[in-house]
Amino acid sequence: MAQTASPAIESAEKKSAINPIVIIGALFFIFGFVTWMNGTLIPYLKIACELSTKEAYFVTTAFYIAYVVMGIPAGKTIKKFGFKNGMAIGLFVMAVGALIFIPAAITRTYGIFLIGLFVQGTGLTVLQTASNPYITILGPAETAAKRISIMGICNKIAGALAPVILGTVVLANIDAITEKLKTLSTTEKALELNQLASRVILPYGIMVVVLILLAVLIYFSSLPEINTEHEDETVAAANTNKTSIIQFPHLMLGVATLFVYVGAEVIAGDTISLYGTSQHIALSTAKFFTSCTLVSMIVGYLFGVFCIPKLITQQKALVVSAVLGVVLTIATLLTHGYASVLCIALLGLANSLMWPAIWPLALAGLGRFTKIASSLLVMGIAGGAILPPLYGYFAEKFSPQSAYIMLIPIYLFILYYSTLGYKAGKSAAVKS
Questions:
Q1: Cβ distance 51 to 45 under 8 Å?
Q2: pLDDT at res. 204
Q3: Which DSSP helix (H) or strand (E) runs through 115?
Q4: DSSP 3-state assignment of 202?
Q5: Residues 6+ positions from 419 with CB-CB distance below 8 Å
Q6: Which domain holds residue 324?
Q7: Which partner from 80, 91, 156, 319 sits 20 to 30 angstroms from 128, CA to CA?
Q8: Is residue 54 domain-shared with residue 136, that is, in the same domain?
Protein backbone atom coordinates (compact mmCIF):
# COMPACT_ATOMS: atom_id res chain seq x y z
CA MET A 1 0.00 0.00 0.00
CA ALA A 2 1.41 3.37 -1.03
CA GLN A 3 0.04 5.47 1.80
CA THR A 4 -1.72 4.85 5.06
CA ALA A 5 -3.04 7.27 7.61
CA SER A 6 -0.52 7.96 10.33
CA PRO A 7 -1.55 7.68 14.02
CA ALA A 8 -1.35 11.48 14.24
CA ILE A 9 -3.79 11.89 11.35
CA GLU A 10 -6.15 9.26 12.72
CA SER A 11 -6.12 10.95 16.13
CA ALA A 12 -6.81 14.32 14.55
CA GLU A 13 -9.68 12.85 12.55
CA LYS A 14 -11.25 11.43 15.71
CA LYS A 15 -10.93 14.73 17.54
CA SER A 16 -12.43 16.78 14.74
CA ALA A 17 -14.94 14.10 13.67
CA ILE A 18 -16.52 15.01 10.33
CA ASN A 19 -15.28 18.61 10.39
CA PRO A 20 -12.36 18.18 7.94
CA ILE A 21 -14.62 16.64 5.27
CA VAL A 22 -17.24 19.37 5.77
CA ILE A 23 -14.67 22.17 5.61
CA ILE A 24 -12.89 20.85 2.52
CA GLY A 25 -16.30 20.16 0.94
CA ALA A 26 -17.11 23.85 1.37
CA LEU A 27 -13.85 24.71 -0.39
CA PHE A 28 -14.67 22.44 -3.32
CA PHE A 29 -18.06 24.15 -3.53
CA ILE A 30 -16.16 27.45 -3.87
CA PHE A 31 -13.99 25.93 -6.66
CA GLY A 32 -17.04 24.96 -8.64
CA PHE A 33 -18.90 28.20 -8.05
CA VAL A 34 -16.06 30.51 -9.08
CA THR A 35 -14.97 28.37 -12.05
CA TRP A 36 -18.42 27.96 -13.60
CA MET A 37 -19.19 31.68 -13.24
CA ASN A 38 -16.90 32.20 -16.24
CA GLY A 39 -19.55 30.85 -18.59
CA THR A 40 -21.85 33.73 -17.57
CA LEU A 41 -19.09 36.34 -17.56
CA ILE A 42 -18.22 35.69 -21.21
CA PRO A 43 -21.52 36.93 -22.76
CA TYR A 44 -21.89 39.58 -20.03
CA LEU A 45 -18.48 41.15 -20.64
CA LYS A 46 -18.87 40.80 -24.40
CA ILE A 47 -21.80 43.21 -24.23
CA ALA A 48 -20.69 45.45 -21.35
CA CYS A 49 -17.17 46.00 -22.70
CA GLU A 50 -18.14 45.88 -26.40
CA LEU A 51 -15.91 42.94 -27.27
CA SER A 52 -15.59 40.63 -30.23
CA THR A 53 -16.30 36.95 -29.64
CA LYS A 54 -12.57 36.19 -29.78
CA GLU A 55 -11.81 38.89 -27.20
CA ALA A 56 -14.57 37.65 -24.89
CA TYR A 57 -12.97 34.21 -24.66
CA PHE A 58 -9.87 35.75 -23.05
CA VAL A 59 -11.94 35.30 -19.87
CA THR A 60 -11.03 31.61 -19.85
CA THR A 61 -7.46 32.31 -20.95
CA ALA A 62 -6.83 34.78 -18.11
CA PHE A 63 -8.39 32.42 -15.58
CA TYR A 64 -6.81 29.11 -16.57
CA ILE A 65 -3.35 30.45 -17.44
CA ALA A 66 -2.88 31.08 -13.71
CA TYR A 67 -2.77 27.31 -13.15
CA VAL A 68 0.33 27.11 -15.39
CA VAL A 69 2.08 30.33 -14.38
CA MET A 70 1.44 30.01 -10.64
CA GLY A 71 1.53 26.23 -10.23
CA ILE A 72 5.11 25.96 -8.95
CA PRO A 73 4.89 29.09 -6.73
CA ALA A 74 1.69 27.64 -5.25
CA GLY A 75 3.52 24.41 -4.42
CA LYS A 76 6.30 26.34 -2.72
CA THR A 77 3.73 28.35 -0.76
CA ILE A 78 2.13 25.16 0.56
CA LYS A 79 5.53 23.69 1.37
CA LYS A 80 6.43 26.79 3.42
CA PHE A 81 3.13 27.50 5.18
CA GLY A 82 1.47 24.07 5.28
CA PHE A 83 -1.86 22.82 3.97
CA LYS A 84 -4.25 24.67 6.29
CA ASN A 85 -2.52 28.06 6.09
CA GLY A 86 -2.13 27.56 2.34
CA MET A 87 -5.90 27.18 2.00
CA ALA A 88 -6.43 30.41 3.94
CA ILE A 89 -3.91 32.21 1.71
CA GLY A 90 -5.64 30.92 -1.41
CA LEU A 91 -9.02 32.18 -0.23
CA PHE A 92 -7.58 35.60 0.61
CA VAL A 93 -5.95 35.89 -2.85
CA MET A 94 -9.29 34.95 -4.43
CA ALA A 95 -10.93 37.72 -2.40
CA VAL A 96 -8.41 40.20 -3.82
CA GLY A 97 -9.27 39.00 -7.33
CA ALA A 98 -12.98 39.51 -6.67
CA LEU A 99 -12.26 42.96 -5.24
CA ILE A 100 -10.51 43.96 -8.49
CA PHE A 101 -13.84 43.48 -10.28
CA ILE A 102 -15.21 46.58 -8.53
CA PRO A 103 -12.84 49.15 -10.12
CA ALA A 104 -13.06 47.14 -13.36
CA ALA A 105 -16.85 47.59 -13.34
CA ILE A 106 -16.69 51.27 -12.37
CA THR A 107 -14.28 52.06 -15.22
CA ARG A 108 -15.71 49.38 -17.57
CA THR A 109 -12.16 48.32 -18.44
CA TYR A 110 -11.82 44.80 -19.82
CA GLY A 111 -8.10 44.61 -19.02
CA ILE A 112 -8.81 45.14 -15.32
CA PHE A 113 -11.47 42.43 -15.41
CA LEU A 114 -8.86 40.07 -16.87
CA ILE A 115 -6.40 40.97 -14.11
CA GLY A 116 -9.09 40.17 -11.55
CA LEU A 117 -9.71 36.81 -13.23
CA PHE A 118 -6.00 36.00 -13.24
CA VAL A 119 -5.72 36.85 -9.54
CA GLN A 120 -8.77 34.69 -8.81
CA GLY A 121 -7.18 31.88 -10.80
CA THR A 122 -4.00 32.33 -8.77
CA GLY A 123 -5.91 32.01 -5.52
CA LEU A 124 -7.67 28.90 -6.81
CA THR A 125 -4.31 27.44 -7.84
CA VAL A 126 -3.02 27.79 -4.28
CA LEU A 127 -6.30 26.51 -2.86
CA GLN A 128 -6.41 23.47 -5.15
CA THR A 129 -2.71 22.74 -4.59
CA ALA A 130 -3.46 22.51 -0.87
CA SER A 131 -6.90 20.92 -0.74
CA ASN A 132 -6.61 18.16 -3.36
CA PRO A 133 -3.61 16.37 -1.81
CA TYR A 134 -4.98 17.15 1.65
CA ILE A 135 -8.24 15.29 1.08
CA THR A 136 -6.26 12.55 -0.68
CA ILE A 137 -3.99 11.82 2.30
CA LEU A 138 -6.47 12.68 5.08
CA GLY A 139 -7.20 9.02 5.70
CA PRO A 140 -6.42 5.60 4.19
CA ALA A 141 -5.13 5.66 0.59
CA GLU A 142 -7.61 3.03 -0.58
CA THR A 143 -10.58 5.29 0.26
CA ALA A 144 -9.10 8.49 -1.24
CA ALA A 145 -11.26 8.27 -4.37
CA LYS A 146 -14.33 7.99 -2.17
CA ARG A 147 -13.44 11.18 -0.30
CA ILE A 148 -12.64 13.03 -3.53
CA SER A 149 -15.96 11.86 -4.98
CA ILE A 150 -17.73 13.60 -2.11
CA MET A 151 -15.75 16.72 -2.99
CA GLY A 152 -16.77 16.32 -6.64
CA ILE A 153 -20.45 16.34 -5.70
CA CYS A 154 -19.95 19.63 -3.84
CA ASN A 155 -18.06 21.02 -6.84
CA LYS A 156 -20.63 20.10 -9.47
CA ILE A 157 -23.63 21.24 -7.41
CA ALA A 158 -21.93 24.63 -7.16
CA GLY A 159 -21.22 24.48 -10.89
CA ALA A 160 -24.91 24.05 -11.60
CA LEU A 161 -25.91 26.91 -9.29
CA ALA A 162 -23.28 29.50 -10.26
CA PRO A 163 -24.50 30.45 -13.76
CA VAL A 164 -28.09 30.56 -12.56
CA ILE A 165 -27.34 32.88 -9.63
CA LEU A 166 -24.91 35.20 -11.44
CA GLY A 167 -26.96 35.15 -14.64
CA THR A 168 -30.10 36.22 -12.77
CA VAL A 169 -28.27 39.32 -11.56
CA VAL A 170 -26.04 40.43 -14.43
CA LEU A 171 -27.97 39.11 -17.45
CA ALA A 172 -31.49 40.16 -16.40
CA ASN A 173 -33.44 41.46 -19.44
CA ILE A 174 -30.24 41.22 -21.48
CA ASP A 175 -32.06 40.59 -24.78
CA ALA A 176 -34.12 43.78 -24.38
CA ILE A 177 -30.99 45.73 -23.40
CA THR A 178 -29.11 44.45 -26.44
CA GLU A 179 -31.89 45.62 -28.74
CA LYS A 180 -32.12 48.98 -26.93
CA LEU A 181 -28.38 49.61 -27.40
CA LYS A 182 -28.83 49.56 -31.16
CA THR A 183 -31.07 52.62 -31.00
CA LEU A 184 -29.03 54.80 -28.62
CA SER A 185 -26.60 57.60 -29.37
CA THR A 186 -22.94 57.21 -28.43
CA THR A 187 -23.39 59.09 -25.16
CA GLU A 188 -26.61 57.29 -24.22
CA LYS A 189 -25.05 53.95 -25.12
CA ALA A 190 -22.05 54.61 -22.84
CA LEU A 191 -24.39 55.45 -19.94
CA GLU A 192 -26.43 52.27 -20.53
CA LEU A 193 -23.28 50.12 -20.71
CA ASN A 194 -21.91 51.73 -17.54
CA GLN A 195 -25.12 50.80 -15.76
CA LEU A 196 -24.87 47.26 -17.10
CA ALA A 197 -21.24 46.98 -15.96
CA SER A 198 -22.20 48.13 -12.46
CA ARG A 199 -24.40 45.04 -12.02
CA VAL A 200 -21.34 42.95 -11.23
CA ILE A 201 -20.34 45.09 -8.24
CA LEU A 202 -22.87 43.67 -5.76
CA PRO A 203 -22.29 39.93 -6.39
CA TYR A 204 -18.52 40.29 -6.40
CA GLY A 205 -18.61 42.56 -3.37
CA ILE A 206 -20.53 39.83 -1.53
CA MET A 207 -17.96 37.32 -2.78
CA VAL A 208 -15.12 39.39 -1.29
CA VAL A 209 -16.76 39.32 2.14
CA VAL A 210 -17.56 35.59 1.95
CA LEU A 211 -14.04 34.62 0.83
CA ILE A 212 -12.37 36.68 3.57
CA LEU A 213 -14.66 35.15 6.21
CA LEU A 214 -13.85 31.67 4.91
CA ALA A 215 -10.12 32.46 4.98
CA VAL A 216 -10.40 33.49 8.63
CA LEU A 217 -12.50 30.43 9.50
CA ILE A 218 -10.00 28.09 7.82
CA TYR A 219 -7.08 29.75 9.60
CA PHE A 220 -8.70 29.26 13.02
CA SER A 221 -10.35 25.92 12.17
CA SER A 222 -9.62 22.52 13.68
CA LEU A 223 -8.19 21.17 10.43
CA PRO A 224 -5.24 18.95 11.35
CA GLU A 225 -1.95 19.75 9.64
CA ILE A 226 -0.46 16.72 7.90
CA ASN A 227 3.30 16.36 7.94
CA THR A 228 4.25 14.94 4.54
CA GLU A 229 7.94 15.42 5.35
CA HIS A 230 7.69 12.35 7.57
CA GLU A 231 7.82 9.09 5.64
CA ASP A 232 7.16 5.61 6.88
CA GLU A 233 9.98 3.08 6.55
CA THR A 234 8.77 1.65 3.22
CA VAL A 235 8.36 5.02 1.52
CA ALA A 236 11.60 6.37 3.02
CA ALA A 237 13.54 3.39 1.74
CA ALA A 238 12.08 3.74 -1.75
CA ASN A 239 12.88 7.49 -1.82
CA THR A 240 16.39 7.29 -0.38
CA ASN A 241 18.14 8.39 -3.57
CA LYS A 242 15.39 10.69 -4.83
CA THR A 243 16.21 14.39 -5.03
CA SER A 244 13.56 15.67 -7.45
CA ILE A 245 9.94 14.99 -8.40
CA ILE A 246 11.01 14.27 -11.98
CA GLN A 247 12.46 11.03 -10.60
CA PHE A 248 8.90 9.75 -10.12
CA PRO A 249 7.71 8.60 -13.58
CA HIS A 250 4.26 7.64 -12.26
CA LEU A 251 3.77 11.25 -11.10
CA MET A 252 4.87 12.80 -14.39
CA LEU A 253 2.56 10.44 -16.28
CA GLY A 254 -0.16 11.35 -13.77
CA VAL A 255 0.26 15.05 -14.61
CA ALA A 256 -0.11 14.25 -18.32
CA THR A 257 -3.15 12.09 -17.57
CA LEU A 258 -4.78 14.85 -15.52
CA PHE A 259 -4.06 17.33 -18.33
CA VAL A 260 -5.88 15.29 -21.00
CA TYR A 261 -8.66 14.28 -18.58
CA VAL A 262 -9.52 17.90 -17.72
CA GLY A 263 -9.51 18.71 -21.43
CA ALA A 264 -11.95 15.86 -22.07
CA GLU A 265 -14.19 16.96 -19.19
CA VAL A 266 -14.38 20.55 -20.42
CA ILE A 267 -15.02 19.41 -24.00
CA ALA A 268 -17.91 17.20 -22.85
CA GLY A 269 -19.43 19.99 -20.75
CA ASP A 270 -18.80 23.10 -22.83
CA THR A 271 -19.34 21.87 -26.41
CA ILE A 272 -22.52 19.86 -25.95
CA SER A 273 -24.95 22.78 -26.39
CA LEU A 274 -23.52 23.96 -29.70
CA TYR A 275 -23.17 20.32 -30.77
CA GLY A 276 -26.88 19.92 -30.09
CA THR A 277 -27.67 22.79 -32.45
CA SER A 278 -25.48 21.16 -35.12
CA GLN A 279 -27.73 18.12 -34.73
CA HIS A 280 -30.74 20.35 -35.58
CA ILE A 281 -31.92 20.73 -31.98
CA ALA A 282 -33.25 24.18 -31.02
CA LEU A 283 -30.91 26.29 -28.85
CA SER A 284 -33.81 26.88 -26.44
CA THR A 285 -33.54 23.15 -25.68
CA ALA A 286 -29.81 22.64 -26.25
CA LYS A 287 -28.87 25.31 -23.70
CA PHE A 288 -29.79 22.84 -20.94
CA PHE A 289 -27.53 20.04 -22.21
CA THR A 290 -24.52 21.12 -20.12
CA SER A 291 -26.61 20.51 -17.01
CA CYS A 292 -27.22 16.96 -18.27
CA THR A 293 -23.46 16.38 -18.37
CA LEU A 294 -23.12 17.73 -14.82
CA VAL A 295 -25.95 15.48 -13.59
CA SER A 296 -24.14 12.49 -15.14
CA MET A 297 -21.01 13.47 -13.25
CA ILE A 298 -22.90 13.74 -9.97
CA VAL A 299 -24.31 10.22 -10.53
CA GLY A 300 -20.75 8.97 -11.06
CA TYR A 301 -19.53 10.68 -7.91
CA LEU A 302 -22.35 9.08 -5.91
CA PHE A 303 -21.25 5.71 -7.26
CA GLY A 304 -17.72 6.48 -6.05
CA VAL A 305 -18.94 7.46 -2.60
CA PHE A 306 -20.88 4.24 -2.03
CA CYS A 307 -18.85 1.71 -4.05
CA ILE A 308 -15.17 2.65 -3.57
CA PRO A 309 -13.45 0.64 -2.17
CA LYS A 310 -16.24 -1.74 -1.07
CA LEU A 311 -17.12 -3.00 -4.55
CA ILE A 312 -14.30 -1.69 -6.72
CA THR A 313 -10.84 -0.19 -6.18
CA GLN A 314 -10.09 3.34 -7.34
CA GLN A 315 -7.58 1.96 -9.87
CA LYS A 316 -10.18 -0.40 -11.38
CA ALA A 317 -12.71 2.44 -11.40
CA LEU A 318 -10.28 4.43 -13.57
CA VAL A 319 -9.95 1.49 -15.96
CA VAL A 320 -13.73 1.18 -16.30
CA SER A 321 -14.10 4.95 -16.74
CA ALA A 322 -11.52 5.05 -19.55
CA VAL A 323 -13.13 2.13 -21.39
CA LEU A 324 -16.56 3.73 -21.00
CA GLY A 325 -15.15 6.97 -22.41
CA VAL A 326 -13.92 5.18 -25.55
CA VAL A 327 -17.23 3.33 -26.01
CA LEU A 328 -19.36 6.48 -25.59
CA THR A 329 -17.14 8.48 -27.95
CA ILE A 330 -17.49 5.83 -30.66
CA ALA A 331 -21.24 5.79 -30.05
CA THR A 332 -21.30 9.59 -30.43
CA LEU A 333 -19.65 9.28 -33.84
CA LEU A 334 -22.01 6.53 -35.04
CA THR A 335 -25.35 7.99 -33.89
CA HIS A 336 -27.29 11.17 -34.66
CA GLY A 337 -29.66 13.66 -33.05
CA TYR A 338 -30.66 13.22 -29.43
CA ALA A 339 -28.98 9.78 -29.23
CA SER A 340 -25.60 11.27 -30.14
CA VAL A 341 -26.08 14.18 -27.72
CA LEU A 342 -27.00 11.70 -24.97
CA CYS A 343 -23.68 9.93 -25.50
CA ILE A 344 -21.83 13.21 -24.92
CA ALA A 345 -23.89 13.87 -21.79
CA LEU A 346 -23.05 10.39 -20.50
CA LEU A 347 -19.36 11.19 -20.88
CA GLY A 348 -19.94 13.06 -17.62
CA LEU A 349 -20.46 9.65 -16.03
CA ALA A 350 -17.24 8.32 -17.59
CA ASN A 351 -15.28 11.41 -16.52
CA SER A 352 -16.61 11.63 -12.96
CA LEU A 353 -14.29 9.13 -11.28
CA MET A 354 -11.15 10.09 -13.19
CA TRP A 355 -10.10 13.07 -11.07
CA PRO A 356 -10.76 11.16 -7.80
CA ALA A 357 -8.71 8.18 -9.03
CA ILE A 358 -5.80 9.97 -10.72
CA TRP A 359 -4.82 12.03 -7.66
CA PRO A 360 -4.19 9.14 -5.22
CA LEU A 361 -2.47 7.05 -7.92
CA ALA A 362 -0.17 9.94 -8.87
CA LEU A 363 0.66 10.92 -5.26
CA ALA A 364 1.26 7.36 -4.05
CA GLY A 365 4.63 6.92 -2.33
CA LEU A 366 5.81 10.51 -2.77
CA GLY A 367 6.24 11.29 0.93
CA ARG A 368 8.16 14.55 1.32
CA PHE A 369 7.62 15.38 -2.36
CA THR A 370 3.82 15.44 -2.00
CA LYS A 371 3.32 19.21 -1.74
CA ILE A 372 5.42 20.21 -4.74
CA ALA A 373 3.98 17.27 -6.73
CA SER A 374 0.46 18.51 -6.08
CA SER A 375 1.36 21.84 -7.67
CA LEU A 376 2.36 20.01 -10.85
CA LEU A 377 -0.93 18.10 -10.85
CA VAL A 378 -2.87 21.34 -10.44
CA MET A 379 -1.00 22.72 -13.46
CA GLY A 380 -2.58 19.87 -15.39
CA ILE A 381 -5.88 21.74 -15.14
CA ALA A 382 -4.53 23.84 -18.02
CA GLY A 383 -5.78 21.03 -20.25
CA GLY A 384 -9.17 22.69 -19.90
CA ALA A 385 -7.81 25.79 -21.62
CA ILE A 386 -5.79 24.11 -24.38
CA LEU A 387 -7.73 21.07 -25.62
CA PRO A 388 -11.24 22.60 -26.11
CA PRO A 389 -9.92 25.17 -28.65
CA LEU A 390 -8.32 22.23 -30.47
CA TYR A 391 -11.76 20.62 -30.62
CA GLY A 392 -13.11 23.92 -31.99
CA TYR A 393 -10.45 23.91 -34.71
CA PHE A 394 -11.35 20.38 -35.79
CA ALA A 395 -15.07 21.22 -35.60
CA GLU A 396 -14.61 24.10 -38.04
CA LYS A 397 -12.25 22.20 -40.33
CA PHE A 398 -14.31 18.99 -40.44
CA SER A 399 -17.57 18.86 -38.43
CA PRO A 400 -18.66 19.20 -34.77
CA GLN A 401 -19.44 15.47 -34.67
CA SER A 402 -16.26 14.13 -36.27
CA ALA A 403 -14.15 16.44 -34.07
CA TYR A 404 -15.05 14.28 -31.08
CA ILE A 405 -12.73 11.60 -32.47
CA MET A 406 -9.93 13.42 -30.62
CA LEU A 407 -11.38 12.05 -27.37
CA ILE A 408 -10.50 8.46 -28.31
CA PRO A 409 -6.68 8.83 -27.95
CA ILE A 410 -7.30 10.83 -24.75
CA TYR A 411 -9.28 8.01 -23.15
CA LEU A 412 -6.80 5.41 -24.43
CA PHE A 413 -3.98 7.31 -22.71
CA ILE A 414 -6.00 7.38 -19.49
CA LEU A 415 -6.55 3.63 -19.91
CA TYR A 416 -2.78 3.16 -20.24
CA TYR A 417 -2.17 5.10 -17.04
CA SER A 418 -4.83 3.14 -15.16
CA THR A 419 -3.28 -0.21 -16.11
CA LEU A 420 0.48 0.37 -16.46
CA GLY A 421 1.43 4.04 -16.15
CA TYR A 422 0.63 4.42 -12.46
CA LYS A 423 3.17 1.69 -11.69
CA ALA A 424 6.03 3.30 -13.63
CA GLY A 425 9.26 3.58 -11.67
CA LYS A 426 7.78 2.24 -8.41
CA SER A 427 9.07 -0.73 -6.47
CA ALA A 428 6.63 -3.50 -5.60
CA ALA A 429 6.59 -2.26 -2.00
CA VAL A 430 5.04 1.08 -2.84
CA LYS A 431 2.66 0.21 -5.68
CA SER A 432 -0.99 1.03 -5.07
A1: yes
A2: 95
A3: helix 110-137
A4: helix
A5: 319
A6: 233-425
A7: 319
A8: yes
What's the sign of the alpha-carbon dihedral 277, 281, 282, 285? negative
Residues 273 and 304 in one domain: yes
Same domain, 211 and 314: no
- pLDDT number for residue 145: 75
CA distance 15 to 24: 16
201-219 and 19-36 helices cross at what angle (nearest 10)?
Answer: 160
pTM of the model: 0.72
Whether pLDDT at 167 is above 60? yes
Statement to judge: residues 301 and 215 lie in one domain = no
CA dist., res. 215 & res. 157, Å (int): 21
The number of angstroms, rounded, from the C-alpha of 331 to the middle of its chain's C-alpha atoms is 26
Q: State in Å, rounded, how far the first CA of the chain is from the last one.
A: 5
Would you give the distance in Å from CA 311 to the centre of its chain? 27
Report how many domains make up the chain: 2
Calculate the CA 359 to chain-centre distance: 13
Report pLDDT digits (tens) over 88-109: 999 999 999 999 999 999 999 9
Instruction: Give residue-wise pLDDT tens across range 138-152.
Output: 777 777 777 888 888
Assess if residue 226 is contained within a domain. Answer: no
Contacts of 163 (CB under 8 A, 6+ apart): 36, 37, 39, 40
**Per-residue model confidence as pLDDT tens digits over 333-367:** 999 999 999 999 999 999 998 988 998 899 888 87
In whole angstroms, give the CA distance from residue 78 to residue 269. 31
Question: Does some domain include residue 432?
Answer: no
143 and 197 housed in the same domain: yes
In CATH, what number is assigned to the domain containing residue 4? 1.20.1250.20
